[in-house]
Amino acid sequence: MIYDMNRREFLKTAAAATAGALVSGDGFAQGARRRAMINGRRVTVVDVHAHTFVPEVWDLVKDTPLAASARNNLTGAIALGPGTAARLQYMDKEGIDYQAINVNAWGYSADRALARDLVQLQNEKIAAAVAQHPDRFVGMAALALQHPDLAADQLDYAVKKLGLRGGAIGGSVEGQELSDRKFDPFWAKASELGVLLFMHPQQAAGTTANPRLNGKGGLGNRIGNPLETTVFLSHLIFEGVFDRFPGLRICGAHAGGYLPSYSGRSDAGCAQANGDDCRALKKKPSEYFKKEIVIDTMIFHEEGLRHLVAEVGVGQMVYGTDYPYEWPVGIDFILNAPFLSNADKEAMLGGNAMKMLRITS
After folding, report:
1. What is the DSSP string of 33-96?
2. Backbone angles phi and psi of 119, in degrees to 5
3. pLDDT at 15
4. Alpha helices, DSSP H only, in the chain?
5. Which of 338, 285, 332 is nearest to 312 (CA)?
6. Residue 137 belongs to what H/E stretch?
7. Rounded (5°) CA angle 208-212-214
8. Among 79, 110, 131, 166, which has the highest number of CB atoms less than 10 A from its own CB?
9. DSSP secondary structure string, 9-39?
10. Which of 19-28, 176-185, 200-209, 215-224 has the lowest mean pLDDT?
11. Exposed/middle/buried for 218, CB within 10 Å: 0-12, 13-18, 19+?
12. Helix (H) or strand (E) holding 250
């Protein structure tokens, strides 16, 4: 399964989105477009955590083991093309001006030939959707990270030829950590291009697929997804990936997992006599949240948001919704936060993302 919900929840969400924009608590009538305002001034809202799926991939994967992963994402609100009307209705209702549309990593088991064709098709379709709605979408490239040299070429082509603004990656590749030196060619290209990479968890042993998370509560999602982000970012820090490639900018989904809130433990461990793993690092682990690591705003509680601002700073935070899945993270979560200045709210809702994704209008 590619995304965060089971089949029944997905269909419920897709149906709700397809039904169109209803009258909201703000008094917006069906079909109206909400405009975010701060102190009477219009501001731009950018959603960096916005999933999509390219249904045309079916012909490539229908006779492969990837068919099971693709099957449940070919229709509904998530589907690029068929779901575009529902997507735009949702954006209008929620006051979102741009979505940075991305396909969550799902094809890392593909051989080189299939991976090449699969990524090419997805990126071309994403670019076409952006061309059709340039005032609403920017695109994030799909990438075949299981073949790092190929992924580097794919990112280069997507940015330079297709006009995509970054890439979407998972937290590991078929059990292999992305901090492995095998992936250096990809990190080198991403650093050279200086584009944002959006990291989102997918099924992974030990985190989202840990058998201890079985049972009630959907723990593979609610605990496992943030845990996967935490492990991924920690490996990149301690294995020196950010130090080797200082141009990297990675947005960790789900508020960066647990790491921003507990990075002090990593700092404290490095200060201990047995902190040999840290001696080669150029700075304390928490300091990578000042430049290299960006996080989205999916933290849900006001106090959680205040804490993240204190830990990483407003400049390292971008707005995200996890579209098309229903979470209580609308723009009012930011607009009504009493501890944020108007400038902070504008930066978090869209200003930071506009710079990182090179949105000029």
Report:
1. ----EETTEE---EEEEEE-B-GGGHHHHTTSTTHHHHHTTSSSTTBTTTTHHHHHHHHHHHT-
2. -65, -40
3. 45
4. 7-18, 58-61, 67-71, 84-94, 112-132, 148-160, 184-193, 219-222, 224-238, 241-244, 253-256, 259-271, 302-312, 332-335, 342-346, 352-356
5. 285
6. strand 137-141
7. 75
8. 166
9. HHHHHHHHHHT-----TT-PPTT-----EET
10. 19-28
11. middle
12. strand 249-252
Q: What CA–CA distance (Å, rounded) separates 361 from 352? A: 14
**DSSP 8-state code for residue 217:** T
Nearest alpha carbon to residue 198 among 271, 105, 280, 113 = 105
Three-class SS of residue 199?
A: strand
Contacts of 108 (CB under 8 A, 6+ apart): 144, 145, 146, 170, 173, 174, 202
Q: Tell me which H or E stretch contains 172.
A: strand 172-173
Output the pLDDT for position 76: 94
**Orientation of helix 7-18 relative to helix 84-94, angle to 10°:** 70
Q: What is the residue extent of each domain of the chain?
A: 43-356
Question: Given this structure, which CATH class describes domain 43-356?
Answer: alpha beta
CA distance 83 to 18: 7
Question: For 43-82, what is each residue's pLDDT tens digit?
Answer: 999 999 999 999 999 999 999 999 999 999 999 999 999 9
Determine how β-strand 46-51 pairs with β-strand 98-102.
Answer: parallel
What pLDDT was estimated at residue 275?
63
pLDDT in tens, 300-354: 999 999 999 999 999 999 999 999 998 999 999 999 999 999 999 999 999 999 9
Tokens of 56: 């045309």
The span from the CA of 70 to the CA of 65, in Å, is: 10
Matching residue, tokens 């501890």: 339
Q: What are phi and psi of 25, to 5 degrees?
A: -65, -15
Terminal Cα-to-Cα distance of the chain (whole angstroms)? 36
